[in-house]
Amino acid sequence: MNAPSYSEALEIAIDRSYDINLDMLRSRNLHLDTYNDYLVGTYPPLKAMGELNSEQLLTQVASSIDLYFHIPFCHQYCTFCHFAKEINPSSERVERYLAALNKEMSWSEAALDGRAIETAFFGGGTPSYLANHQLKSLFDMINKRFDLSKSEVSFELHPSLVKHADAADRVSTLLRGGVNRFVLGVQTLDQNILRILNRGHGAEEVTQTVKLLNEMGVENLSLDLMYGLPEQTLRSWYDSLIGLLDMGIEKFNIFPLMFKSTDPIAGQLARGRYQFAPAKERIIMHFMAEHILTRLGYRHGPIFYWTKRPQPHSVQQRRKYDSWNDNNLVPFGVGGFGYMSQCQFYNEADLDRYLAKVEAGEKPVWKGVELSQDDLMRRTLMFALRSSGVLLSRFEREFGVPLEQCFGRELEILREAGLVCIVSG
Question: What φ, ψ does residue 119 adopt, rounded to 5°?
Answer without folding.
Answer: -145, 155
